[in-house]
Fold each of these.
Amino acid sequence: MEINRRHFIALLVGGAAGINATPLPWKFTDDIAIWTQNWPWVPVPPTGEFSHVKSVCTLCPGGCGIEVRKVDDRAVKIEGRTDYPVNPGGICPLGMGGLQLLYNESIRFTGPMKRVGPRGSGKFIAITWDEAINTIADRISDLRKQERPEALAAIDGNPTMGTMASMIERLLRAVGSPNYERIPSAEDTYRMTNLVMQGTEGPMAYDLENADYILSFGSGLLEGWGAPGRVINAWGLWQEHTAKRKARVVQIESRASNTASKADQWLAPKPGTEAALALGLAHVIIKEHLHNADFVDAYSFGFNNWASPDGKNHMGYKTMVLNSYSPDQVAEITGLQPKDIVALARDFAGAKAPVATCGKGKGYLNGSLYEFMAVQGLNALVGNINMPGGVLVCDPPPLSPLPEIQKDTIAREGLKKSRLDHAGTRRYPFSKSLIGDFAKTIIKSPKSPVNTLLVFSANPDFTLPDGGAFREALKKVPFIVSFSPYQDETSYMADLILPDHTYLEKMDDVVWPTGLQYPLYGISKPVVKPVYATRNSGDVIMQLAKRIGGSVGSSFPWKKYDDVLKERAKGLFDTQAGLVHYDGSVPAWKRLRDRGSVTPDYKNFDDMWKKIKAGGFWYLPVHAYKNWDRLFKTPTGKFEFFSTRIELAFDDYALLKNMGIAEKGDAACMPHFEPALSGADRSAYPLLMLPYEMINLASGWTPPPPFLNKTIFDNQLRKNESFAEINPKTASKYGLKEGDRVTIKSPQGTVRVCVNLFEGAMPGIVYLPLGFGHTAYDEFSRGKGVNPNDIIHMGKDPLSGHPVWWNTPVQLIKV
Amino acid sequence: MKNQASSSQKTSKFGLTSLFNRFISFEKGSTFLPPFSFGVWIFFLAGLIPSLIVGWIIYPMALYSKQPQPMNFNHALHLNPEIVDGIEGDTETERCLFCHTFREDGTFAGIPKLDKCLECHDDPESPLGETPEEQEFLNKYVAEEQEIPWLSYFRQPDCVYFSHIAHVKIGDQDCETCHGDFGRTEKLPAYKVNRMTGYSIDIWGRNIAGYKTNTWDRMKMDDCAECHTENDLEENNACFVCHK
């Protein structure tokens, strides 16, 4: 038989007919469809029993309540809590992305390690916990044997009022070192403002929810300022049309941020001139007699000219403001229109409950002390200090003090040595810590005065707005120990890593979220068992102290960190007030406003502690409003427009120049405007660079969860290039178009970015986002964009000594 | 214009007639269907028969891989109140729920965790029965406090939301309706997994053609819909009821 084409066709037809007479094609099609929905790289939550664990977020000092959904032992989702007084159900994008910090081996340390590669290379090998603790203990013991315990220093990024901060400071004091450094933030400036004007040590407490006019001096109300879950909710309340009168939000900021864009009014003064604007508003308010005379006349000091007991005449706030800050003068300084200043002042003073807030962006960076004083002065002028919808004056949280630190001779001698940063000395009388000067001292000394540096919850190498000065200092320190759970830039410089748990694995306290108007003590508790071989730094400090032994060991009499938390919390019980349950239907701010009383909802201390651990908080929604006659702890007992504390600190006005204060005489004791001086040649650097913060970009110590990369627009970050926002007018002067590459040069260095033409940018200013440009972490962050901190030409804020990061002269060079 | 008109007319007439004549031609010497030769039929069958074998026999064998359960479990024994103390309930469903429980929040626990087994088999040293399986279970899992890595026959894709409590408590369905007579089996059937999709064979059904005689033979979307429709619950066939 001859086989021809016809036979082949028959074979194929037969095959096709046969296959179609089987279930194969239909089943195969169905399976392919399912297969395409189950790619192996698509994450599928595990199956198992669902549960929810309530805790508190500690990724920022805002401390929002969170509820973590779990499937068996795996945490799968973080949501805001509705039964937590701070944030009624909402949290910020960073908080939502927190799980990517927990389950992420590429950005975490899986156990104690020591460095094997060169500094910055990120090459480490695993060691045991015993070896790690022994290494540090031996070094510290050696320093003490050599009688130079002050060569131990610590950098701490934990919130000021938390127990962790007090443990770290305690360790240093017990060892005998005064060199406990903190990462500066707006909270430091708030503290100093309250101290010099009100004499109080409590936090800045804004009664935002009850305010009807919010004058924000650069506060990123929608950018993550304060407790983001709370502030964004307050924004919603302000916009409610059912309210008797819709609240008005005015944003004072040079750039059209989200807050500025959504505010009822946006005024853009030149950056760094906000204090002048605040004083200009004060001028109009005083001149038109719009101020609250009840408060100003009876409960304030230094408003009018006054004479000291020695017969010397002093200028008062009123005279200074009327002389030097007329709308025309202020318009000249700020670049605003005089009529806008007058109208704003009238609006502000005319509101029922106006509040002026300060603290730029998220508040992660410090502010200018005189500027904060000027803003607080506005609140005082309208009498909205300790009034509903104003700034409340609160005592520090009622936590029990820890027992006395035991100090041996070595420790006592060491503590007598002066701090490396000169904080608290005559030059910077109100600052507790000045990390910029700390770095400077190390850089200037031929041999680093710091032998061993401990770093806790901080990434100063990346976050300090100092033009890379701290990085230089780190290079000189012989031995650096990082307690960070994350592989951040500072850890890459460290010689030893003792990784802490992440916030979802440990118990810690969250004391008084930033800006909250009533005392709140939160407990963040382990949501999952530790994923890696990490240890709570609080416990490690105790193990370290015990290993050093002697008086250092006996200064830490507790078994574990949780015991310390419990001991401090006893003070809450001693108030015989406060609540550990929260009913979301009556928000805390409403309870506060309605001036209800509070009956404690616990029986004894153990019951209270059990309930705090279960629910996660204790809070006290009662406040004694007004109370002006007993409120202020200043030497005069009044709110001081003229700060007698500053006057006492100065001794002699001749010293002002040494302290970096340009103003002469009485005005130096009052809020006033000091032009920021960079010292750079402005003809070579005609523009200014200003960093800005975004709510969906982690800019502090916390690593950015990769999830957030999805929310970044392609005119903010494209592949590995970040963008500078430049006004089209400025750009056209330099012949720049959208997307052009440009080098930004400051006296401190250069960065290369792309141009994003943005009408909301002030002409003459180049804006760079904070949070890009990591050299550590994983592929999602490393090498993405540039870090503006690298080129910041840091100045010094007069009086506080903190960094001036808002005045970097730059020039643009088209690539 | 005249030329164009005449040429188009000519093409149309010529083309159509020609095509018609080619396929259905009444002209002499041509036939509509040419008679196939014997050889052609042989080749046709040589294509047909192997492909039928491939489609009906080899394909299902290749598609599914058989995986052994970690150990046997005798459902019939455990559900017998005469043998096992504490298995209560008037109906079979109630007895199933004794181990396959609803959690407090109403979610279904599915295959019980070791904790549930330990409620009775609490002491690895003293077996309750005499079977070798129980001995293995006590040694390997109870003593070691290890979960038994059961393979689930009825795991639906992740994109499907299915509430057991809605069907059992509100819909009053028996377990058997979907899961068959598992409760009466003494041996666990072989677990077969689809190599392409990773799902159990019981979702498509053990019959490769998808032919079913019982309600529990198949667990595809159409089967859900069929039951909803039969019970006048067509509104539950809306996409977002299950694909949330």
Amino acid sequence: MINRVGRYLLWCVLAVPAVLMLTRLATGSALVMDLLHPSGEMAIRLMILAMLPGPLADAFRGNRVLRRWLAIRRNLGVAAFAYALVHLALYVVDMGSLPALLGELPLPGIWTGWLALGLMVPPAAISFDAAMRALGRRWKTVQRLVYPALLIALLHWALLERDWLPAIIHLAPLAIAWALRVGAGYRKVKLARSMP
Amino acid sequence: MIPMNRLLVLALVPVAPLLLSTAAHAHGDVRCDSGPVENWKPMGELKKKAWLEGWTVQKTQIEGDCYEVYARTEGGQNIEAFFHPVTLQKLVVYRRGKEIYRAPDFKPQ
């Protein structure tokens, strides 16, 4: 776990991009629509940062950096959700009216965004210690919703951008981490079998 | 035996660079083949063109070798439209990534 001062510092760092975005908005150097992309991108990147240490810690057991990273990953996940909410708030402000919002709902580029955010709600809602204790093993099962949430968020991005490259580039580090975990697991199985 | 999900992940590893290279070629740029910038019409005329469409312009910019307009239509739809910088012809219009208009003589790349 992380101590109080450490957590305070971490959240200050995590808030920096949001403060920069708000400053750009306040000084008029960016329109609300200009911040849609950066806020969504930040949500996805934090999500990936929260999802990386798990497989990496399995691949490199006992690594101290990875242990520290694991200790803060719940904060990273909650921050990802916070940026996704900022992203939604900016979208709602930019659209300006309920009929306009509903009018865009059937578009694949839009409903995928709503779905990705919806999938993030249960894991984010139980991201506190008491819920973790109360749910036991089921807590992890609920957290796994971030996998479909991430894939659908990347689909949302690719559809709006009309470009698959950013989505694939963002998926690459996770693919590598998963491959390393699988590789490490496979070595372990072989080692166990070679034992008399 | 290696579990099935592990096999799947292992199978995906060699496929990833392949996906990456195809995606690099097939991305969503709009190309106008508009030639040297000296021959381009001024942005002011582009805004007028968008205004004549009945749109409320939010932003105009140069995207690659095209003019791009972010606007809201009379019906309140959010759109992203590409214009040819020399002829100011409306080439293609997207609504949240979905193509809703393409000039008949403008071929997809």
